[in-house]
Specification:
This is VOC family protein. This protein is of the alpha+beta class and about 140 residues long. Helix content is about 15%, strand content about 40%.
Length: about 140
């Protein structure tokens, strides 16, 4: 079982360009999914080609994630959120529940369109967290 902590960068229409730049500097493998790749996910047609999720895997211990924030999501998205990921269901579910205490769950930890379990929250101190559990099966355990 494993877990990892990764920076998750937010952009407004520049995620692909930025992540490609980071790859040119850091090396590694860049994987990109657009909103269109995931069935549109409710973004305007003009934004469907933007990045829903990208992962730059540099090594076993270094990865940078990034995405475009759709125009319908109002607010200031300071560049960065913290992403917790891996396949240790008990640890990651416990961290999600613990971080959510006193905070706000924006997206409940549940089955995601890409097959993993995903949740998003803002903790009691205003820090944004995303949790992705890979290989969790249909029930998240």
């Amino acid at each position: 079982m494993s877990t990892s902590l990764n920076p998750y960068l937010n952009f407004r229409g520049e995620a692909r360009e930025a992540m490609t730049f980071y790859q040119s500097v850091l090396g590694g493998q860049l994987d990109v999914m657009t909103f269109a790749d995931m069935g549109g996910m409710g973004v305007p047609d003009a934004e469907s080609g933007q990045v829903m999720h990208s992962a730059l895997t540099v090594s076993d211990s270094v990865a940078v994630f990034g995405a475009d924030v759709p125009s319908h999501m109002e607010g200031d998205f300071p560049n960065g959120r913290i992403a917790l990921s891996g396949d240790d269901v008990d640890v990651l579910r416990g961290w999600f529940d613990g971080l959510a205490a006193g905070g706000t769950v924006n997206v409940p930890l549940d089955k995601a369109p890409w097959g993993d379990w995903f949740g998003d929250l803002t903790d009691a101190y205003g820090v944004s967290w995303m949790v992705n559990i890979s290989g969790a099966g249909d029930s998240g355990d």
